[in-house]
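Entry: DUF1311 domain-containing protein
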Amino acid sequence: TPVQKTDKLARSIYVMARMTVSGDSIIKKKNNSLIEIAAKKFESRDRELNQVWKSLPASARTALKQEQRVWVTKKEQQCGKLSDAKSEAIPAEKRISIYKCQLEMTIARTAYLDGSE
């Protein structure tokens, strides 16, 4: 009957809408997890960089201070701002990309400062 067909159609539309919402929720959770992992990796290496910096003699820190400021600016220009990586208004892929780039540059800078590069 027409009523049964309408009910089946409505039910099908409802199920498809629920699947779409569930799919979006799964993608959002996955993206949030990837962002969190990227952030933690970066934060760990950033702490390591800060430890290396603090372990340098005061004279070395003074001599490298301007170079370090230039590096921080270059890293932000090349990778993007950490404030953007933390912003939910920025797409997940971009946020992850910022963290990954920041991580790579931080690892390289740490190696440079501790002489292991």
